[in-house]
C-alpha cells in the first residue's frame, strides 16, 4: 500500500517512540487500562493474530498453547517486541505488516486481537475489515481501545485533544470500533466500558458460515 507524505511522517513519529514507549505508557496502563490486556488476551485460542502488536505489551498475557502471529508496521517497535518475546521464551511469529492490508488468506485465524491501536491507524474501517476477513467463520475478535466517552465533559476534552493529536500523531480519541463490528454481523459476547466509558473492551464472534 502506497503511503502519503503525511503517513510517512506519522510512521517516522512512531518509529522514534519505540525506545521510550513502554516507559511513557506505564502510568497510563496503571491508571486507565487496568487489567484490560489480561482480560482480553486470556480469551484467545488456537491460531491467533495480533494486529498492530507494537512493542509486545500483550505477549505475557496470552494463555499457553496458542500459536501466535503478530504484525506491526513500525520496524523499531517490532524489534522491541521480538526482544520481549525472546525474554519470555515465546515462539511467536512477529513480522512487519500493515493492518489495512494483511498478507494472510481469508479465514486463516481462530482469534484476532487488537489493543489500543485502532485509534492511530489512518483507516480504521479498512483495518477492521481486514481483521474480519482473516478470521475464520465462528472465530473470535478481541478488541480494546480508548473511545469517545459516555460523559459530555470528557467528550469535550477529547475533542480538544483530537485537535492536537490527530494532525501531530495521527491518534484519535473519539473513535469507537464497536458499531463497525456490529455492522459486519458479529455477535458481541462480552463487553465492558471503564473510566467514564473512555476504555472499551469486547469479544465478538464472527458469524458462522452458512
UniProtKB/TrEMBL annotation:
One of the GO biological process terms: methylation
Record-level Gene Ontology MF annotations: S-adenosylmethionine-dependent methyltransferase activity
Methyltransferase type domain span: 49-142
InterPro entries in the record: Methyltransf_11, SAM-dependent_MTases_sf, Thiol_S-MT
Record key words, sorted: Methyltransferase, Transferase, Ubiquinone
Transmembrane segments: none
Protein name: Ubiquinone/menaquinone biosynthesis C-methylase UbiE
Organism, scientific name: Streptosporangium sandarakinum
Source species taxonomy: Bacteria, Bacillati, Actinomycetota, Actinomycetes, Streptosporangiales
